[in-house]
């Protein structure tokens, strides 16, 4: 059963200038699936098209499957269903279609290595619910090599299609509360992807991730379409670092037609993300669509290149389009997020068409990430180059936070940033001005009123 995201997206964009749909309005999606039972059935595989922009390589075109396996569940919300899930996936690997039944909850209490998948469809109609045994997961979730990232399960392989309209729920509350007590808690990513190729993930509802919703590493030719992300804390402890997607060591990744309510980057391109297409997203409450952070680790060379971001609605966010690079000196954003001193390049990035509504900075280029002391940052300029960057067709209004500034273009030296263009920036601050802090950039190609008044970084 496909849920009607298209309708919700239309509503979201139509009401941009007025109230946007609340989290409550979308939080029941997927629950309708869990509430009612229908006879066993398979979902037909969605016909995902990349539109209006096309990825750099042809999208995957999976063959039909020839076998159906139904995953069993204890259905009591506490007995681990992982053995049933693994059995169904093995039984139907290499050409089958695995159904996670509509109205059924699959309770997952064991870390699953799903990198063996090959020519398979996962039809998630019901719900995957992860246990909140924080001790177990911290000892057993899969480590990724970047920023202490770990995940509940690790998805990889070739020609894997996941769809079905069901829900994947990270049961995050226990994690939000634990992280508030100890920032070194290793909170798993909901959807860990390592080495996935030629695959399409679509029509899924993701809720209450302990940390990022997706971490996509070592992957190529993967499309995410029609993904609905939300889930906050119901205690005083916020759900932190709930990035929608982070890409890492990956190429030819498309993320499109999705709705994201979260509390950190809507999408972030981490080191070695190339040929990335992002289009038609509604992001609420986020930190924007971000390149970076990059240059975090001494001795590493980070590349983010050939990225096209098109048609994004950005509401109640710290940033719209953002590039964040650590300076060339040890810096700390917080105890668990430190870095600086790395090199690399950000090249050929286009942000085209962004609707800005109550966003602190519509555009933020920041080469002093993690370093509050600007003088110190400029003493140790980053060697990481930022070239051929286009921001165009931005429209809307920022928040009051930095007014009259609507953006910042701050490079740590005059030699590293070249070819930064901002055109048709029809964004104003609440007072009607469109100023921006400009440092070590060519102001003549920026369609904003440059000033040297520094108001701060996000
Ligand atoms: C990606 O692949 C590299 C090289 O095979 C491997 O060392 C690394 O563990 C993989 N996973 C991640 C998250 O980088
Ligand atoms: C990883 O966690 C350790 C402690 O567990 C911490 O010292 C370190 O700063 C963390 N690294 C990053 C990059 O978050
Ligand atoms: C832990 O998960 C169970 C369901 O698996 C739930 O009943 C309980 O409320 C959760 N605890 C917290 C602190 O969220
Ligand atoms: C990124 O690619 C560059 C160039 O191939 C390489 O030197 C660097 O180690 C890669 N970084 C990561 C994190 O894989
Ligand atoms: C832009 O994205 C919205 C969803 O936010 C979608 O409804 C609209 O059709 C998209 N526009 C184009 C030209 O694709
Ligand atoms: C820049 O990136 C786009 C994809 O976003 C790609 O189509 C184009 O060929 C790239 N340009 C160059 C000069 O590589
Ligand atoms: C900022 O860094 C400069 C240069 O290292 C130093 O002189 C100054 O005291 C620092 N300011 C603060 C507030 O730490």
Automatic annotation (TrEMBL):
Keywords recorded for this protein, A-Z: Cell wall biogenesis/degradation, Disulfide bond, Glycoprotein, Glycosidase, Hydrolase, Repeat, Secreted, Signal
EC category: hydrolase
Main location: secreted
GO BP: cell wall organization; pectin catabolic process
Signal peptide location: 1-19
GO molecular-function term, one example from the UniProt record: polygalacturonase activity
Gene3D superfamilies: Single-stranded right-handed beta-helix, Pectin lyase-like (2.160.20.10)
GO cellular component: a single term: extracellular region
Enzyme Commission no: 3.2.1.67
InterPro entries for the chain: Glyco_hydro_28, PbH1, Pectin_lyas_fold, Pectin_lyase_fold/virulence
Active site: 287
PANTHER family on file: EXOPOLYGALACTURONASE X-1-RELATED, PTHR31736
The name this protein goes by in its record: galacturonan 1,4-alpha-galacturonidase
Biological source species: Pseudogymnoascus verrucosus
Gene: PGX1
